[in-house]
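Researcher: Please generate the 3D structure of the following complex. Treat every line as part of one assembly.
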Amino acid sequence: MLTLENVHACYGESRVLQGIELAIEPGEVVCLLGRNGVGKTTTLRAIMGLTPPREGRVLFKGQLLNGLSTHQIARLGIGFVDENRRIFPGLSVEENLEVAQKRLPEQNRHWPMERIYETFPMLADIRHRDGDFLSGGQQQMLAIARALVGEPELLLLDEPNEGLAPVIVQQVGQLIRQLAQTTTIIFTDQNLKFALKYAERGYVIEKGRVVHASSKESFHSDLATIEQHLSV
Amino acid sequence: MNLMTAFVAALLNSFDIGILLFIIASGLTIVFGVLGILNFAHGALYMAGAYFLLTLMGTVGMPFWVGVLIAPLGVALLAVLIERFLLRRIYHRHPSFGLLLTFALLLIIDDAVRLIWGSGYHIVEPPQLLRGAASLFGVTYPLYSFFTIGMGILIGIAVWLIFHRTRIGKTVRAAALDPEMAQAVGINVPIVLTVVFGFGAWLAALGGALAAPMRTLGPAMGDTIIIESFIVVVIGGLGSFPGALFGALILGGIHGFGGRWLAEWNIVLPYIGMALVLLWRPEGLMGRR
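Model: Done. Output below.
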């Protein structure tokens, strides 16, 4: 589904990614683990072309993404949820969804508006509210819904739990589980507990490199190693 | 003339000037709001609209009604080329690049007008249907001015509907608010910027074409209008569309009423108004902080 080969990326002069290697199979739920500033966000941004790789290759369903612009990558079927959610502030909830909707005949949509509002009932009640006036949880749900109306096959969630109340964190987890039935998901996290509960396997990133990759079988038995990487 | 008719005349003058300024300044403010470029060449595009109409009616022999539709489209096409080949290169640079580039464009367009049409003055005749005058509350006023006021109101409503009721308008707003996130949800932001710059130029040129029968065409006609448009958007708030309407009506009012009762102050009043707004609300009356 998605392969990163020796991906390097920079912010200005500092090389944030130094040879990331990932291989994600269709239908997987994978977590990128690591402490703050190790390159988890940049890895997702490199996939989206927001921080274009300086070296290495990104392949999605066999197609090379290097050199494509971000909107082309999004339209190929990759949804992106930013860690800061970045709801368009002057637009209502419904308008935020409308501008992100993939242009498709209505009958070909997996995520028509009705299904979005069934999946996210809290958004249905506030569909006319301005994006400026949403709680953190509402913003996060809207950010995920906005990615879904783009009809992604692969969903990238950057720190989906950051700054959210425990009830909402649980809702996000259940949502990941529900979406995983039809969508491949990569999410980043610093919290091992959440990752173990909702991801099938994980990568640990440190200083812009993958330092540990767990298989589905070993994910839960690798705990000691993973914890060591996260705590150092 | 009693006070009542003087008041109505001043009011009509205010709208006559204000609505035209609104059409032009709304293009300026939309371009700034979406592209982040303060377009010095906006007045030159206004002038180009008037001169294109002159040639379409004179040399080509088109009727006014056809020319007034086509001339702004021609200018918009020119603007699309400007955006695609020049502006696009400087978005990621310091804002001063945008000022320098559009100032250069202003000089180039001004001189191109002198080369093509000469430095003399030209007149565009209003269409037969709109010659003469009409009376309102005892004030006789040019029929053509009623037409431009009506057109301006229609254009204002149409632009508002485009931005708030159509998907393309909402897409433009999203791209203006957060271009990077807009790209990430699949919006082709470079195309949005091209379209918006073309649209802003279309508004300037439409203002120029509509103004042509009321004003004398000369190579400096864009300079006064760009200064007035800047005052309008500073008063209303840079990037704010309702702000452009308010700013334009305020400036129109200053000209309309100031011109009648404070004639000797009329030249400085717009600047005093702008200074007061800057002191009181530096972001403009409707601007975002």
